[in-house]
Amino acid sequence: MRFVFSPSPPVGIHVAGSDALFPVRRVYCVGRNYAAHAREMGFDPDREPPFFFCKPNDNASVVPVAEGETASIPYPPLTRNYHYEAELVVAIGQGGRNIPVAEASRHIYGYAAGLDMTRRDLQIQMREQGRPWEIGKAFDFSAPVGPLRRIGDAGLLTQGSLTLEVDGKPRQGSDLTHLTWSVDEVIANLSTLFELQPGDLIFTGTPEGVGPVQKGQTMTVKIAGLAPLSVRIA
């Protein structure tokens, strides 16, 4: 097959203990999946069905970060309220549709720490106007992801601390047990909307404590059992 120009290469996420890369197919994100975060954003934290949005899967949006490294990303244009959101990222290794909750873990390849970077002012502006969120969520460099730890090494991550620090100062802190919808429930629900495929990433939501980050600051995400993710705003 000939293309009119060379297509962009796939994005590869680092895999702990391996020189192989995990190729990214799609990037799904869950909105308001921690009750305390829903409250701080002004919403009722009742356990309603989860909702999803997507980020681009190209190398302009997804930022793979190797273990022990600090990635640099630019402060994005047209915002004055650039927020961090620390999240557990789930990598899908086996596809499926209408996956039962009890079988969801069989479809997991591994886990990583991630950041759902957000132009909060633009997101809120679009939300108030009833328009899509893309300019607030799906911009360049909006999805840094640390190295994946395979499920065979990590085990099932159903509990454990999730924290974010900015220049060494705590900003976010919670536990995976506080997810409104568990990882298995998220996979099962998402698979009723889309047929999941190997290479899909799922950002599972952020806890309370989101806030702005400035040029020159460094964010560090730590999730129990996973390699830390370190990202500096250039």
Features:
234 residues, alpha+beta, six-stranded mixed β-sheet, five-stranded mixed β-sheet, 5 helices, 18 strands
Give structural notes:
This protein has about 230 residues and is an alpha+beta fold. The protein contains five helices and 18 strands. The strands form five sheets. The protein has a six-stranded mixed β-sheet. A five-stranded mixed β-sheet has the order 6-18-17-13-14, with no helix packed on it. The protein has a three-stranded antiparallel β-sheet with strand order 10-7-16. A hairpin with a 5-residue loop joins β17 (about 220-225) and β18 (about 230-234). It is globular, with a radius of gyration of 17 Å.
SSE blueprint:
Elements: E1 12-14, E2 21-23, E3 27-30, H1 35-40, E4 52-55, E5 62-64, E6 70-73, E7 82-84, E8 86-92, E9 108-115, E10 118-119, H2 120-128, H3 134-137, E11 143-145, E12 149-150, H4 151-154, E13 161-166, E14 169-175, H5 183-193, E15 201-203, E16 211-212, E17 218-223, E18 229-233
Parallel strand pairs: 3-15, 5-11, 6-18
Antiparallel strand pairs: 1-2, 3-4, 7-10, 7-16, 8-9, 8-15, 9-12, 13-14, 13-17, 17-18
